[in-house]
Amino acid sequence: MTGAANAEKAALSHLPAVWGLVWRPARWCVTAYVLTTAVGVVAPVAAAWLTKSILDRVTQPPVAPSAVLGLAVGLAATAAGTAVLPQLNRYLQARLSRRSGLLVQDRLYAAVGRQQGLRNLEDPLFLDRLRMAQQAENAPALVLDSVLGLLGAVAIVVGFVASLAVLSPAMTVLLLGSAVPALIAQLWLARGQAAAYWEISPRHRREMFYATLLTDVQATKEIRLFSAGGFLRSRMRAERLAAHSVEDRLDRRTLVVHGGLALTAAVVAGVGLLWAVRAAADGRLSAGDVTMFIASVAGVQAALGRGISDAARVQQSLLLFAHHAAVQAHPSDLPRAVPGRAAPPLRRGIELRDVWFRYGPEHPWALRGVNLTIPCGGSVALVGRNGSGKSTLVKLLCRFYDPTRGAVLWDGVDIREFTIEDLRARLSVVFQDYMNYDLSAEENIALADVAGEQESRRVQEAADRAGIHHVLSRLPQGYSTQLTRIFTGESGPDAGVVLSGGQWQRVALARALVKGGPDLLILDEPSSGLDPEAEQQIHTQLARHRQGRTSLLVSHRLSAVRDADRIVVLQDGVVVETGHHDSLLAAGGVYSGLFTLQARGYREARPGEDVHQPMVRR
Ligand SMILES: Nc1ncnc2c1ncn2[C@@H]1O[C@H](COP(=O)(O)OP(=O)(O)OP(=O)(O)O)[C@@H](O)[C@H]1O
């Protein structure tokens, strides 16, 4: 079997799933749609027969007026139905398409949510597939539409062919024979179209990326300042032009195929017309027969054309839907323990045992044989130069990735044995690259605990601990104020506000603190954007909050980590030093070097310079 035939067979295997996606959300709508479509199919054949009968009766005396009148009323009713039904049909089609689209979208984003690690969302192939799947929202409704169109076309062809076969068997064979190459050509075109979409998908993704940059207020600052807009626009244009060249190639192919098919159809119809005129002149066909012949040839050709296009559309929609199905079936980037155990409350501690990790086989090692223990109730600080692997270690603790070698143990149990949701429910984290959500102040904080009790009191307590309550409570709508201006007007009661960088950081901190008593609190650079006074305050408050709780603090501000029970120094993915502040300072190693350098930076202010409050407490 060829690759194309395999792809087609695989595409057809999605038919039951596609049917479920239109039938389940819109049963009545689908039923009514099928019925109106069926009536719409019968109407043109009935109209052709009624016209023939009227003409035959009118041109062959004696004329029976009552019979002709009855046929005329039937023809008028058919014409009225033919005029109205398409409107109803369109309404039903749009309605079922919306409902099905919603279900398709729900399923897609639920499948993305089942990807519990980060690896797939960093994989360009998965992202291209995801983009194709996003475009498949209307595929099930389109398949239903096209299948019904195809069945209708078959019914029309059968109806007209029966009439035509009586008048001219040779013409019937010629018409049907001409449909075979047309079908093959259309299926070939549809396959090419699906392949072209796949080919230009990465280009569309990059184009979207540039378009988002050019309209994003955050990015715009740098883009305007550095006058980089022209450069980005030219990149965006280049992506669009590259996609155009693929589309042009496809359009040329379509033009040649469609042109050839239209020419063939015109020649076949012309030959038929010549034959019918001669047969009428010889007296072999009546006037009614000639109109029936012409209507049948036109009807068969139109129905064949529509049917063939519908068959191609079914194939194309199924090939597109195959990406949706592939995303749904995509294995999670993290193996799930079966049956997964619930992560119990932490009793002894968390241990990284000989952990090696790299982001992919082609990447260098980010962690190389890390051994580290975070005792229950203890505070550990992680320090080290840029790129030494601190955030990577945090990501392994959250199980966004699994170690390439070694294990992360929770009270001695490999965390891979726990259900991921349970494990994460026991953690709270402020990430270095925390998010600013375009939501209200309360939602921004409560987001960390949507499953928990949505008590405003708890949100406000967390905000207080993060030192942001006094700001949020004084906003125009208090905690209900939107922390964004992109969805709300410039003024008025609904106007949103924009927080400063440091205020956003405190909101992120409040989000981590709202989760009632996590077993492990991870703070990855929680104060990098704060002013010295605020940083001092936050660290004092956090030190109080972390007392008796298990915590991991990652920070380049060494003054902030000196009180930790244990300080771990990472260098090139290896733990090079572990100990208390004083012992590490006395050892004169990496930590001591970094600390002395930082402390000197604060002490070496020029005379008369306004020195901020020193970071290093003596
Ligand atoms: N998603 C990723 N894919 C590939 N490599 C990555 C990824 N994230 C980090 N790395 C690489 O892993 C190494 C460790 O990075 P990591 O972010 O853990 O360092 P860090 O110690 O937190 O640095 P910093 O102090 O600058 O925050 C770096 O070499 C980095 O380039």
From TrEMBL:
Pfam families, sorted: ABC_tran
KW Metal-binding (keyword) present: no
Membrane disposition: Multi-pass membrane protein
GO molecular function, one term: ATP binding
Main location: membrane
Keyword Nucleotide-binding listed: yes
Location in or out of the cell: Cell membrane
Transmembrane segment boundaries: 30-51, 63-85, 141-167, 173-198, 255-277
Matching Gene3D superfamilies: ABC transporter type 1, transmembrane domain, P-loop containing nucleotide triphosphate hydrolases
PROSITE patterns: ABC_TM1F, ABC_TRANSPORTER_1, ABC_TRANSPORTER_2
Domain of life of the organism encoding this protein: Bacteria
Domain called ABC transmembrane type-1: residue spans: 34-316
Keywords assigned by UniProt, alphabetized: ATP-binding, Membrane, Nucleotide-binding, Transmembrane, Transmembrane helix
Domain ABC transporter: 350-597
The protein's name: ABC transporter ATP-binding protein
Organism of derivation: Actinoplanes sichuanensis
Lineage per the UniProt record: Bacteria, Bacillati, Actinomycetota, Actinomycetes, Micromonosporales
